[in-house]
Structure formats: C-alpha cells, structure tokens
Design brief:
Helix content is about 30%, strand content about 25%. With about 550 residues, the chain is of the alpha/beta class. It folds into two domains: about 160 residues, Glycosyl hydrolase domain, family 39 (Immunoglobulin-like, Sandwich), CATH 2.60.40; about 375 residues, TIM Barrel. This is Beta-xylosidase.
C-alpha cells in the first residue's frame, strides 16, 4: 500500500512537471543577428470624417499619435473635397469642406477655409497628410442629386459624391488650385513632403463611374498636381482587397494604364505613379457564441498585392502604402449595429494588431518590397456612447487598449533582430489555416545602440476565455553583464481603460474623477517596477505569464 502511494505521488508530480513543461513557451532573441530595418510603416492613420479633426477629442488624439515616436506620422482622411449637405455637417462616414462651388454662370468658386483648418491641425503637430483628392463636389458631379447620404439612418451610401466630374478640365483646375494654394500657405518644401492620391476604392461603389473614367479622372488630377508642383508625389489606386479577383485585376490594369497606357489629360504615354496603394482587410464572424477573427485573409490581401507589384519589373523598389490595413472593413459600424465587431474595445484588437503587423514585416522581407506605410483606419467618433464598439483608438478622449500597441511599436527603434519561438506561426501558416488550433505565441524584437525591445503576444482568432501562456524569454548576445529591464503590458489589468470602465458599472455620464481614472487607465503601464538583472555570458532570461490576447513589451537598456 505504501509503495502504491509513493508511486501515485511520483506519478502526480511527473504529470504536473510534464504539464508545466508543455505550457512553457520558449522564445529566443538573438541581438547579434539583424534581419532588417524596424521600419515604422505603422505610423499611418486614417478616417472617413474629416471634420472630427478639429474637434477637441480629435485634436487630443492627433497629439497623442504624434507623441508615439520620433518618426513622421501620416494622416489620411476621406471627404476633403465633399460639399456640405443638409445636415449639421458631419456624421458617420460623412464630412465636408465645401471647397468648390460654381456661380450661376458655371464659374468656379474656391473656398479653402475648412480644408485649411484640417490640414493646419496636422501641420501644427508636425504630422503629414496623405492627401486624398476626393470626393466629387456637388457642383462638379454628373449626378448631384441626391448628394448627401443618410447611411447612418439606414439609407443609401452611394449618392452624388461618388460620380465622375461633369467637366474634367474643371476637375484638373480644382486640383491645380488646391496644390497652388497649399504651397502659398505652407511653403513648397512642406507640400513636397506630403503624399497625394486620387479617390478611394474605385473598384467598388465609392466610384460610380467605369474603370476608364477612373483612369481619366486620375490622369487629369495628376496633371493638375504636377502643373502646380512637379516635385509632389502622387500614387494609387487604393483599391480594395487584392485577394478578390476583381480588385486584383483593377489594381494591375490601373498599373498597366499608368505605365503604358495613353494619358487622357496629356495625350502622352504614361501617367505619374510614384507609389502603389491598396487596402487589406480581415473578416471576423460569429461562430457559435463568439467572435472569430480571420487574420489570414488580411495577410492574403497583402501577399497578393506584393506579388502584383513584383510582376512589373519597372516597379522594383517603388514605395507601397496599404491605404487601409484593418481586421475588417467598417470602422463606423458599432458593436450594436453588428455584434461581430465586439472585439474592438478589449485586448483582442491589441493582440491581433501586434501579431498581424509582425507578419506584415515578414511578408515585406520575403517579397523584398519597399513598404512605406500601412494606414490603420481608426480614429475617434464624436457624439457617440462610451465604448460603443466602433473601430477607434479612443472614446471620448480616453485611449482604448489598442492604442497602447502603437505606443509599443513607437518605442521600438533600429534594426529588427532574429526571434525564435517554438509555437510561432509563419505568415503563410496563418494565410492557409488561420490561428484556429494552437495560440500564436511569438515576438518581434529590435535593437539600437544600448537598448533592445521585444514585443511578445499571445493571440488566438477565437475571442473566448483561455489560459495564460508561461513564457521563457532568453535574450542572447548582450554586450554588458547587467541590464535594466522595463516590462510593459496590455491585458485585462494593465493599460486597459475598457476594463476600468466596466468595473465602474459602464457609466455613460462619467464624472470628472472617473474620467481622470479612465484617462490614466488608457495609458501604457508597467507590469512591474524596473529592475536590474544579471547577464551571464551575454545571456539573460525572463519568465512571466502572458494572458490570452495579452501583449508585453520588454525594454532592455545597458
């Protein structure tokens, strides 16, 4: 009997040891093995509603985005040429500047006051516009009525602002005057540093014209831009997901037109195309009783677009901008409108962003392309409920957990270095099978000077409860025998205003004290106090638990 008890006791100990061993995820970072630049392609943001730019919370968020890192932050917004409708002026997926009108004789009247107020807000903060030439002013539209959409009330989205110009020469002159005015206001050196594009997603109903009419509109816009500023940069076409054959064909046909087609505006062969723009979106859905993300299709978009660009030898090393790069396609759809968007307030949005951005670096390396930017189409929404479940970075001026991932990326400098994880999935694994079986527990690391940064995530496509991961992180090739470690964390307890708000009882009328607490909870927080740790033979190790959908950033300084 005693022997049996000893046997059972030892068996239990052995099982517990095996479970502990199985749960431990070993991640090795090789600081002496650089793999590429820690290119800040993530420092691009965008939104539909340009008038939010100058609102109090909009200005606050832009300031915070600028403060993420020393790198340049670009901002893209729709509706910079849209005419004022009959409403208060802004709504979900709507905004206006009233930049162009015509008098009774059809003569143009330009009014840059609202456009200037938006661009001023960027420039004052040292940000750069990715200037979107669109949408069609009412007095230039071939179908001006109805003009303002009522999508937020369930009405038709694709109204008069989506139509071609009634006069392409007036369209060219509008662009010329806009660029000329910008140079007069901001100086040529500043304007030359901007990026310009024509329209948005012309392969779907954002454009109610033909492919040929889009090419014509682009040619005339590019001609107007270059007449005012030959040194300015223009690109496109900012089409939708290239994994879809129609969008892929539209993208490649547009490139073909720009390289070898007849220019509608000049009659010459070829049109300025100085960067390639396309969009990449995931596709969440409800599976049973929970949300299931689909990172694989977003990465598939990027893979296909990189292949498309590489199929044109003339485009080698051309800058590429993913004009919208998101887990799905409707920032202005709240969780109430579509429950599948309920992932946005919590940490799943954070871990998805960390894991997907790391795979974008991977695809960039594999396809040897010049990725300049990936625009996160997420900003803030005015006059909405607290944590309404929009795809935004802040609610009522309070940062949501996902913004702290961008703070983490903003801290990472220098060159990316090699990371090995026994549970890592490759970009192609995720494209093929998603993250449906094992959790994706992996890391991205960089090093510059006497500092290194390691971002670690515990991601899964299924938004359900799960166990924490036991991480064993080994950092190799340290140059000193002692390092200062700072460990930042995003999870349900740290850097999470949403959980703080829920603990308050989900108030919609937030007191001044509650607001202060939420504001503090929305900042990036340390998991533990900074500490010095020994490095033996150039190696140091950290062990910690990382909750499902959690993200850690470890900063080492020596």
């Amino acid at each position: 009997m005693k022997t049996l008890k000893i046997f059972l006791f030892l068996s239990i100990i052995s099982i517990q040891f095996l479970i502990a061993q199985k749960q431990a995820t070993k991640i090795d970072v090789e600081l002496s093995k650089p793999i590429g630049e820690m290119r800040p392609y993530w420092s691009f943001f965008g939104y539909d509603e340009p008038n939010y730019t100058t609102q109090k919370d909009g200005q606050k968020l832009l300031t915070e985005l600028k403060e993420l890192s020393p790198t340049t932050v670009y901002v893209r917004t729709h509706n910079l040429l849209t005419s004022k409708g009959n409403s208060k002026g802004y709504d979900l997926k709507w905004g206006f500047t009233d930049a162009y009108k015509e008098d009774k004789k059809g003569n143009p009247i330009y009014n840059w006051m609202i456009v200037d107020s938006i661009i001023d807000t960027f420039i004052e903060r040292g940000m750069k516009p990715l200037m979107e030439i669109g949408f069609m002013p009412k007095d230039l539209s071939t179908k001006p009525e109805p003009y303002e959409h009522d999508w937020s009330n369930g009405g038709n989205l694709w109204t008069g602002w989506t139509y071609p110009p009634k006069d392409y020469n007036k369209w060219r002159e509008l662009v010329f005057q806009w660029v000329k005015h910008s140079i007069e206001r901001y100086g040529k050196e500043e304007v030359v540093s901007w990026l310009w594009q024509v329209w948005n997603e012309p392969d779907i109903a954002y454009w109610s014209g033909t492919f040929e009419e889009y090419c014509k509109m682009y040619d005339y816009a590019a001609d107007g831009l270059k007449k005012a500023c030959p040194e300015c940069t223009i690109g496109g076409p900012h089409t939708t997901s290239p994994r879809n054959e129609k969008a892929y064909t539209y993208l490649t046909n547009f490139i073909e037109h720009c390289l070898r087609g007849k220019n509608y505006a000049t009659g010459n062969i070829g049109t300025p195309l100085q960067y390639i723009g396309f969009h990449a979106k995931g596709s969440p859905e409800f599976v049973g009783d929970h949300i299931q993300m689909n990172m694989g299709v977003q990465l598939k978009d990027i893979q296909k677009a990189f292949e498309a660009v590489n199929s044109f030898p003339e485009l080698k090393n051309i800058p590429i901008i993913i004009g919208e790069c998101d887990p799905e396609g409707c920032a202005a759809c709240s969780e109430t409108r579509e429950p599948k968007y309920g992932y946005r307030n919590g940490t799943m949005y954070s871990s998805y962003t960390a894991a997907s951005f790391a795979r974008i670096y991977e695809l960039m390396d594999q396809h040897k392309v010049n990725l300049k930017g990936a625009v996160s189409w997420s900003f803030e929404f005015e006059d909405q409920e607290w944590f309404a479940g929009f795809r935004d970075l802040a609610t009522h001026g309070v940062n949501k957990p996902v913004l702290n991932v961008f703070r983490m990326f903003g801290m990472m400098q220098g060159e990316r270095v090699m990371v090995k994880s026994e549970t890592a999935l490759s970009a192609y694994n995720i494209i093929s099978d998603g993250v449906r079986e094992q959790n994706d527990i992996h890391a991205i690391a960089s090093k510059e000077g006497d500092s290194a940064w390691i971002m670690v995530w515990n991601y899964h496509d299924d938004n359900v409860e799960g166990e924490s991961a036991n991480i064993e992180l080994t950092v190799n090739n340290l140059e000193k025998n002692k390092v200062l470690i700072q460990h930042f964390r995003i999870d349900d307890e740290f850097s999470n205003s949403f959980e703080t708000w829920k603990a308050m009882g989900k108030p919609q009328n937030v007191s001044e004290q509650q607001y202060s607490e939420l504001e503090q909870a929305g900042q990036l927080q340390l998991l533990t106090s900074p500490k010095w740790q020994e490095a033996v033979n150039g190696k140091t190790q950290l062990k910690f638990d990382l909750p499902r959908q959690g993200v850690s950033l470890i900063q080492l300084t020596w």
